[in-house]
User: Fold these one by one.
Assistant:
Number 1:
Amino acid sequence: MTRAERAEFIHRRLAELYPETPVPLDHKDAFTLLIAVLLSAQCTDARVNQVTPALFALADTPELMQEVPEKEIQAAISSCGLAPRKARAISGLSKMLVENHGGKVPASLEALEALPGVGHKTASVVISQAFGVPAFPVDTHIHRLAQRWGLASGKNVVDTERSLKRLFPRESWNQLHLQIIFYGREFCSARGCDGRVCEICRALFPKRRSPVKIRKA
């Protein structure tokens, strides 16, 4: 198969497997989604969903969160990795949202990436899932699978995102990035498949004899 043919097959099969793509992080609006995605760095979604109820009981709007002492935020999220850094970011971005954006989460990559602790991937998730703006956030699952499936070179996540955006229709990006994550977790995990085990890997490369060496994100 050519790269385009592989992409078409993957798109079709993932749509069959995951017709519904709920965001796996519990949230109620753009602000709580932003905080949840920020917390998910080096932390599982399940852990984030355990942590956020206590955090959002303290404050669930930028106006309220900016008033919570940083130490209280850190205590609420202490079981997440990098808790001190994330607490500082949550406090800082809440203040910036109030001061610069009227307490609203902006719907642009540039404005989001200017907030403390918010990188390109986090901003991409927020604009895609909170505002419906087409984006293709690349996490470790997507970076790994894009290499296994021969969709990207794997040089870095920037190259992977660029390659995937070229291969798949723009209107599919917001759903497809979640479908790839779901598939990676269920069937093509780092330990569960080496590029020769799962259904899609076998279908794309039936004669592959050696494991795929994955470049780190």
Number 2:
Amino acid sequence: MARKVDEFPVGGRSNYPWGEWMDGGVWELTVGEDVKTNPRNFRVSANAQAKARGGKVRTKILKDEQGTERLYIQFFRP
């Protein structure tokens, strides 16, 4: 049955290890393996995660020789 609560829940489980990926290093993610959604949608999530951490994220999508999409991300603070 529905009930009213005092506060909106905070936290929760994420599908991705954002804390690790937002360490400032350059990360190569494989679409379909590391990234389970459309890479363009993932970029939106990455931008939101970076903003929540007080920074921004650089992203680039490339295809390798076999046609597999790779997504590169790097968190930074301007």
Number 3:
Amino acid sequence: MYHANPYQQYRQNSVTSAGKGKLTLILYENAVKFIKQAIKFIEEGKLQEAHNAIMKSQEIITHLSDTLNMDYDLSNNLHSLYEYINRRLIEANMKKNQLILGEALDLVSDLRDTWQEAMKIAAPPEAIGL
């Protein structure tokens, strides 16, 4: 009989019970985490690990872009920003360039922070799990 790691089980439950707003925040947080990892891996000369981390962040940004509701003007702007971030991530991956990753990190961090603030304004903390 297999017993799941309690931390993994907690994380799985957190994701499956989260609302759309919280899931978006989790995606932003993970994109930030993977970009930071990529920067660290490049510093350490671990280029394959850097590549893998960048690819994970690209997958998240692509998912965020693909799930936009294009009925809103804001979605068009976000789509363009996501495309730009992905292009920069691709370039950073090809060149293993920390400065480009830093730019992408700043953009994704700003999106995460803005999203978190919007969630606080839209609902009381107990309703969004903060």
